[in-house]
Amino acid sequence: MDALKEDIDEAKNRLEAWWDHEIIDRPVISYYFPRNELSIAAFIDIIFFNWYLAKNPDGIEKAVTSFESRAQHLNYGGESIPSFIPYYGAGIIAAVFGAVSKFQSQTVWLSRPTSPNDIVALLENVKLNADNLWYSRLLRITEHAAKQSHGNYQVSVTDLGGILDILSSFLGPKEVILTMKRRPDIIDTCREILLEKTLKIYDDLQNIISKYNDGCNAWLNVWNKKRWYPIQCDFCAMLNPTWFKRFALPDIIAQAAHMDYSIYHLDGPNALVHLDDLLSIPELTGIQWVPGDGREPMGHEKWYPVYKKIQAVGKNIVNTVTPARLSTMYRNFDPKGLFLRSVFFDKDFTDFYLPTFIAGDGGRIIEKGIEWGENKNLMSKTDFNTFIQNNEMQIENMNLDKLHQEINRKLKKNKKE
């Protein structure tokens, strides 16, 4: 297959510097837009998680060939690295320990109801060998994908999940909390078993990938020359700070120490209370803060104090933001250690919104258009032409029809808000 990204060496050099909180020639930025032949549905499917393997656990050949076919029609801009992830759902490692994986309602549910009295024996008896269906499946499928890549794209370690998240697949959230209170020794023993075996699975999968690929990647899709992984504990949203320190933080520290680099996936407003504890971990490289409630997404001004706190202690930030928020973030925060990703459904919109350091307009023309037409529900074609003439704007190579449409879309949205 043809190379998916011609400037991949330059992108990797910038990413290596980013992990070390440095800048070579410009800030890093990751963006995508489809070529004409790729449908919007296929475009979204290839950038975000594809559910094919969750529905067809051994269908790796079709999953890989489908990725390769569609990836040819995707533009990987900036520091976006073409990557295939053998994705079975978040926390598929629970299946290695015997949980049943069920695809339903566009997600994967992992469950095996187990009593606290039986959970330690169940986890201890799990062997990571050829007789373990899901362990051997993950090794086999990762090897097939990495070997098939021929160095044209990266293969990522699958989504492993958090230690307490995996445990919750067996005990259930309520029973985990009750057992923490009544029998904390059971929780501690389970954590020890899960941590040891999860790290071994990570090493086994990355060792396979390293035979065929340059570097390391994961579902967060921030390539690294050395080993890293996005650490998470979604269960921590249910824990108060004291219990977080007692039952979650030690495993997060151990995972971060096991890697060369690491990013913590902080998910949901109830988890934000643990930010200070996470920032105190020297081995943790950065934070991905996902608000999760849908009202104020990543990059929203409401979260600026959170980002400033993260940067104040020298940690990196990973964000996926709307095109309109890209340049605003770069203008408001130190570009060192700032990784922003955005998705464009049309090449013309990259001209409108990409930051000026990567030859975009940084949203300036649209911002001026919104300011000029702030008292209007919509800007007529005549008004638009007058706006362009009055401002004597240099808009070489821009699609004026789409620019007009985008200004009107933003005006209409602002009126509703």
Structure commentary:
With 417 residues, this protein is α/β, with parallel strands linked by helices. The chain has a 7-stranded mixed beta sheet with strand order 2-1-11-10-9-8-7, sandwiched between helices. It has a two-stranded parallel ribbon with strand order 3-6. It is built from 18 helices and 11 strands. The chain is globular and about 75 Å long. The model has no long low-confidence stretch (mean pLDDT 93). It has 3 domains: 8-33 and 224-346; 36-72 and 82-216, TIM Barrel; 363-417. Helix 7 (133-149) runs parallel beside helix 10 and helix 10 (184-212) runs parallel beside helix 11. Helix 12 links the parallel strand 8 (261-267) and strand 9.
What's the short version?
The chain has 417 residues and is an alpha/beta fold. 48% of the residues lie in helices and 12% in strands.
The CATH class name of the largest domain reads Alpha Beta
- Helix count equals 18
- Strand elements, count: 11
Q: What is the typical, i.e. mean, pLDDT?
A: 93
- The helicity comes to 40-55%
Q: Which ranges are low-confidence, i.e. pLDDT below 50, for 5 or more consecutive residues?
A: none
Main β-sheet, spatial strand arrangement: 2-1-11-10-9-8-7
Kindly estimate the percentage of residues that lie in beta strands according to DSSP.
5-15%
What's the domain count?
A: 3
Rg, nearest Å: 23 Å
* CA-CA gap between termini: 47 Å
Oligomeric organization of the protein chains:
single chain
Large-scale geometry: globular
Task: Kindly identify the CATH topology of the largest domain.
Answer: TIM Barrel
| CATH structural architecture of the largest domain | Alpha-Beta Barrel
Element-level helix/strand string = HEHHHEEHEEHHEHHHEHEHEHEHEHHHH
Which structural class should the secondary elements be placed in?
A: alpha/beta
In this structure, how is the largest beta sheet organized?
A: 7 strands, mixed
